[in-house]
Amino acid sequence: MAANYTEDDIKSLDWREHIRMRPGMYIGKLGDGSSPDDGLYILLKEAVDNSIDEHIMGHGKEVRVEIDDEGRVEVRDFGRGIPLGKLFDCAAQINTGAKYDSNAFQKSVGLNGVGSKAVNALSDHFKVTSYREGREKCAEFERGNLTKEHKESASKEDNGTFVEFVPDESIFKNFHFVQEYLDNQFWNYCYLNAGLVMNFNNKRYVSKNGLHDLLSRKTNADELRYPIIHLKGEDIEVAISHNNDYGEDIFSFVNGQYTTQGGTHQQAFREAYIKVIREFFKKDYEASDIRTSIVAAVSVRVQEPIFESQTKTKLGSSVVSENGPTMKKFMEEFLGKELDNFLHRNAAVADALKKRIEQNEKERKELSGIRKLANERAKKANLHNKKLRDCRIHFNDEPPAKNKEEFIILQNNSTIFITEGDSASGSITKARNVDTQAVFSLRGKPLNSYSLTKKVVYENEEFNLLQHALDIEDGLDALRYNRIVVATDADRALVRQVFEQTVLPGWVRRCGARCAARPPTCAMPMNAPAP
């Protein structure tokens, strides 16, 4: 029987309830901190971004961050400090802040007055203190609810803001911060704000050369085909080089926000770069030949940026500012002048760049015939491909209209096991879930293709079949499986050592003294579920 639909079914939530009920709208996926895009790092970022915005506006050259073993986060900047009379509103009134006034924050990444409130609502404990012109004020919260508001008082502290929070463990279960992800986060702040000092648990992060330093750290200098081209202008900074890899590796940022999914600024850069190169060399190179193996970093400052989600991973703005140029024109004018001038002044770099483009062109033409033949072979083999025991649901399948959410869960569980030989694949095939788990059988010792050209992969029938099974010929966008497991034989002692150093400590952390009381060589069976 259909349920009655009445006025009683319509509910209004206050801002705390909405954030806590639908946290994904505000911080993306939750997670426990084991992935760099977990919401835990968004909480930290939201707290730090306000300090970075102060620095961008010319106030405060240092931001101090401390995170203890219990997950307590402290952020202290030396900006202007939140106006004391509006401290509570900025921490606990949704859609309230200074960033609606572009005169106060011209090119800020946080514009919606939501970020700090999301941190407040999703924290067991949240405390904010503002120091301003010899006075200070403090407010404390639990899960977004005010617990104590201190009276304004005299202060000897330097101007700035102090934020302290502890993520709510009922939402971020068994959470932990990973040092590697924190390093990347703090280094990105410094690369995008040359001269800014980030101090994390007494470790100092600072960059003198901005995106040049970023590209140097992200790439192997020995593999770069020419020295990094570093260009800076008003509201834009670019670093470019080529290496020996295939594909493109572009790091893009907007107002200090790492746009992992790109957006209009990244697309504008790709198009403008091709245009400038063609005009400089006076040759109509293929776009793929120009961009193959490029490594680049692009940072722009945009007034009132429009992102495609609250987590701000993709820019949607078509213009740089109100009544300003389009993103495409802005990028074309900058690269058309600065990159063109650089290549004219640096003939050796221009020559090395030209050689790399022409090498890409040569390899593409050589591959065209081999690729056609290899693909024809693969299509024939795929009809009776004994190496692949496929599953029914793949990561790149289009979800059906009905039971869409259940289908997406199955997609995310889609896995391919790459095994050594038919004997290993046999046992996995018998035990697998045929809906979501596929098996691909390789020979015992496949060719080591590291640093070899694509031509070698196409000529190797086994690798070409694997490439088609994964559907990665043109990149990872069409990858058919969400997880790829290399299932190989290994030395038992090594397996035991890895188990003790990786899996077991995680179990100890999760289940506490019950497991910690056991000796390091815990006798729990390898296939037992975590207690």
Write the layout of secondary structure elements.
Blueprint: H1 15-21, H2 24-27, H3 39-56, E1 62-67, E2 73-77, H4 87-92, H5 115-121, E3 123-132, E4 135-142, E5 145-149, E6 153-154, E7 160-167, H6 179-192, E8 197-200, E9 203-206, H7 211-218, E10 229-233, E11 236-242, E12 248-254, E13 257-258, H8 264-281, H9 287-291, E14 294-300, H10 327-345, H11 347-383, E15 388-389, H12 404-412, E16 415-420, H13 421-431, E17 437-442, H14 454-459, H15 461-470, E18 483-487, H16 492-511, H17 513-516
Parallel strand pairs: 1-8, 12-14, 16-17, 16-18
Antiparallel strand pairs: 1-2, 2-7, 3-4, 3-7, 4-5, 4-6, 8-9, 10-11, 11-14, 12-13, 15-17
Helix pairs in contact: 3-5, 6-7, 8-10, 11-15
Largest sheet: 9 strands, mixed
β-strand percent reads 15-25%
Uncertain segments? 505-531
Mean pLDDT: 82
Regarding quaternary structure, what we see is single chain
Task: Say how many strands there are.
Answer: 18
Class per helix and strand makeup: alpha+beta
* Number of H- or I-type helical stretches: 17
Distance between the termini: 41 Å
Radius of gyration: 27 Å
> Share of helix among residues?
25-40%
Gross morphology: globular
